Amino acid sequence: MVIGEEEAPAAVAAGAPAGLAARTTGLRKVYGKTVAVDRVDLEVPVGAVLGMLGPNGSGKTTTIRMLLGLVTPTAGSVELLGHRLPDGAAWALPEVGALVEGPGFHPFLSGRENLTRCAAAEPRLATPDIPRAVGEALERVGLSAAAGRRYRGYSLGMKQRLGLAAALLLPRRLVVLDEPTNGLDPAGTREVRAVIADLHAAGTTVLVSSHLLAEVEATCTHVAVLHRGSVVAQGELRELLEAGGAGLLVSTPDVEVAVDALRDNRMPARSTPDGVHVDLTATTAPEVVATLVGAGVAVHEVRRQRTGLEDLFARLTEAETNEARLSDVEELHDEEAPQ
After folding, report:
1. Domain segments of the chain: what residues?
2. What is the pLDDT of residues 101-141, one digit of tens each?
3. How confident is the model at residue 217 (pLDDT cuts 50, 70, 90)?
4. 245-306 architecture in CATH?
5. Among 105, 149, 112, 104, which residue's Cα sits nearest to residue 131?
């Protein structure tokens, strides 16, 4: 089928939220008796770098595969770049670059040869432009020097880089990266961060899935937290962190005494490598200091501390577990999901 010869299917129905590169509504995927994804409502704003955060088995990869039309949902709908899937896949997917569950290439071909084959399958890439596009993509991910080596001799990190290069062969409206730093050393991780920053600066929407909280906090503007197959929170990262509540970091040599004194006065506190962290949701900094001084705790320093993504993630997932709202959802590791 030549796309230009047929009229594209109708775009998303009138009334759909503007400014979304992708959206899922009531998305659900069941494998036998196992619920892998359960009623996921996900929104990816245009131009955002959205981090899909969650541990292995939370449904990240299954959600991404349904978003890209690789897996058929059991229920729910997917809208991608203004088109409903699966009918609009032929019009939406050429605008999407993706690296999902690790790359798959021919082991006896070189990195350049593999990437050239990928480029030849791109409907928007003219044949004369393929060598240039391949060279630029290899340079962008730091594989130019190893482009002539056979793929079977690549390290895990190099394979990830080649998969990323395939997603970046030409300008995209949306780039989807599933665990892009898997197998990379610190230098490679920094390079991937730089690529994501460049895409964001160019106006490209990026969806990144990860179980590494530090990576999401360092690279993303928005976040969606998945737990047991469902979205428990999503939105602008800065707003979510601010909504998580302020904290107070107390530097003291009497950590255990301080924690006990605060908890005895109904002030949530826990020990950290830097001292004592106190949740200020239901109290104030002066009350904390007064309580510690009254208990004979030596207070060396007190400073406000914004809620980190790790604290926010722990709070969201622990609350979801305690409320047992998803007790019927069995855990399924994404990489073990049936095709």
Report:
1. 3-241, 245-306
2. 777 899 999 999 999 999 999 989 999 999 999 999 999 99
3. confident
4. 2-Layer Sandwich (3.30)
5. 112
